[in-house]
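Chapter review. Work through the record for UDP-N-acetylmuramoylalanine--D-glutamate ligase before attempting the end-of-chapter questions.
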Amino acid sequence: MNKQRLVILGGGESGVGTALLGKAKGYEVFVSDKGKIKENYKQVLIHNTIEWEDEQHSKSKILDADVVMKSPGIPDKVALVKQIREKGIPVVSEIEFASKYTNATIVGITGSNGKTTTASLTHHILKQELNVGLAGNIGDSFAKQVLDEDFENYVLEISSFQLDDIKDFKPKIAVITNITPDHLDRYDYKFENYIASKFKIAMNQTKDDYLIYDADDEVIVNHLKNHPVQSTLLPFSLVKTIENGAYLKNENIIITIEKSQIIMPTSNLTLEGKHNVKNAMASATVAHLLKIRKQTIRESLENFQGVEHRLEEVLKINKVKYINDSKATNVNATYFALESMDAPTVWIVGGVDKGNNYEELYRFVNEKVKAIICLGVDNKKLFDAFGSMVDIIVETQFMSEAVKIAYKVAESGDNVLLSPACASFDLFENYEDRGRQFKDAVRNL
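Structure tokens for UDP-N-acetylmuramoylalanine--D-glutamate ligase:
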């Protein structure tokens, strides 16, 4: 019998992880990347005698695949992907491929914002008492962990792009943190396509599985009304009383699941801001479902350190706080950041705009922002949106200069906030690179 041929498009973290798992499971594996494969990944492929190519796609070698795993970064619109589909070759995501090779309990977390924090926080609580891995859109690839670690439980942070190519993937517990317009360039600029993509996380769930979601998010609530799911629903809310799920009452989080209730004070949460109360509710609900002790959940929520590049306090210089929120790549994320500012703020914003509407930020800009520094190749839209609201608005193409300007403008007691509301690719490699450059520039002041 001939070996099944697995072709992998994209030689990054998910691609190389899938290649290793595929080889171990008896596939004939070929990795093809249109760009350059990073040296460390190349060495892994060579060491494991896996065939690869970069800076090209050899169609003849790709179109004879039995199954194709494509990197989440490659859009469906690409001609090669269309050809693969026309030939009837199944296209799957790494999450779909790897999940077939594990019997672990899977917690899948998606949403426009808050998914990294919620996934990291959930993992932080569960690992106190369970054997659990953290993967997906974060850290080591899921496929590689299935191969090397074989955890009994996984917390997966899953993007809409990863959900687009699932067929049978079914998490025991799914979480949707929120849904706001993002990445619409990949969904024909139709918000409903993006919403449907997020909801694929629950499409294979049955009543024995759980869907945890934000009941204050109208987009989610309306979609559930019109497209009911099979899952057992556990909503969370800051404003409503929830019978089964989580809600806030007198500064306490109250979680009820099948008559079992836990109460957590929010006064000692390490993460500040309303959105983080929601992230804590989602994580604590998962932990309660998986029978983690109340005491453990409470302590974990109180000692969690947060995620790099997400409202990360860098330094205080001359009583000015410098905050790195480089992970805010859309308007809604920056909304949360500005909402949580408790002092006059010098705001560094800009980058690649994905069709942003800045109106929802006007209130906070009027209330809290004293100066705006635009850090992007094209800043016209930002000047149009905010130029009349602040006394100082300037632009630059250099992080070091942006930080120096902020240093000059900020006075004792102010905040300097990097929260770009945009993608980073015009001036930086990615949001991590942008955040690290900010931190370096602050430390060099």
